[in-house]
Amino acid sequence: MTELDERELLRCIDALFVKRFGLFTPDRLEDGAENVPAEIDDYWEIHPNFNEFAQNLIDFLTNEQTKPVLSDVQKVNRVLLTEQFMSPKTTPQLWPILVAHKEAIAEQWTQGGRFVLEVGDQYALLLDQQRQPSVAKPYLAALVVAHQLGAGVAADDLTGLIKNVTAELFPGFTIQPSQVKAALLENDLMRAQDDYWVPTPIVARFAVTQDEESKEGAKS
């Protein structure tokens, strides 16, 4: 992970240790604390079992002999557990297995009472029923941007597209393009391909709003 910048590292920490495993709890330092830097972006209360969890994780990743032999269905579930999204392009080797066993795999996730596996023609998405749909402005803007990616937008043009969308959706309200880009990536709405950003099949789950449909009609 040495090639990741600080913002991407923080996003990975939040996704893995805060949201996924609950080992970090977002917190705030007490006002007036001594020897505290002037600016603190993130601060967490760390679960007392974190060191043991981290050591077990490292041991698993570095010791090939401890890795169990997984069945094809287990391999699919492991991808869903970490990525929550699959498609013929992202996981071409496992996709036929998922399609062939989608009812059985979906039933396994349903038994836990928390996750629901949604399988479309070109995507599979593991939905967390305890996670409420976001109404944050960057997320709403990300949905619109994802629909406007079309066949793909050059990487250098993505920021301009985001600025145009946010200006139309929320006039007079400043939203950082980096926040919208993060929402696009965190929700698997786009992926990088040959210096372009292209939409993932999951975008088809979200209907374009009536306002956006009228804009598209006006363009045509």
Describe this structure in words.
- With 220 residues, the chain is α+β, with helices and mostly antiparallel strands.
- The protein has 9 helices and 8 strands.
- The protein has a 3-stranded antiparallel sheet with strand order 3-5-4.
- Helix 6 crosses helix 7.
- It is globular and about 55 Å long.
- The model is unreliable at 36-40 and 209-220 (pLDDT under 50).
User: Gap between N and C termini, in Å?
Assistant: 45 Å
Write the H/E string, N to C: HEEHHEHHEEHEHHEEH
Mean pLDDT across the residues is 77
- Please state roughly what percent of the residues sit in beta strands, choosing from under 5%, 5-15%, 15-25%, 25-35%, 35-45% or over 45%: 5-15%
What's the shape? globular
| Uncertain residue segments | 36-40, 209-220
Number of helices: 9
Strand order of the largest sheet: 3-5-4
Using only C-alpha atoms, the radius of gyration works out to 20 Å
- Give the helix/strand class: alpha+beta
Keywords summarizing the entry:
220 residues; alpha+beta; three-stranded antiparallel sheet; 9 helices; globular
Give a quick precis of the structure.
This protein is α+β, with helices and mostly antiparallel strands and 220 residues long. It has helices at residues 6-20, 50-62, 72-83, 95-100, 102-111, 137-148, 158-169, 177-186, 210-219, and strands at 24-26, 44-46, 85-86, 115-119, 124-128, 153-154, 190-193, 196-199. Strand 7 (190-193) and strand 8 (196-199) form a beta hairpin.
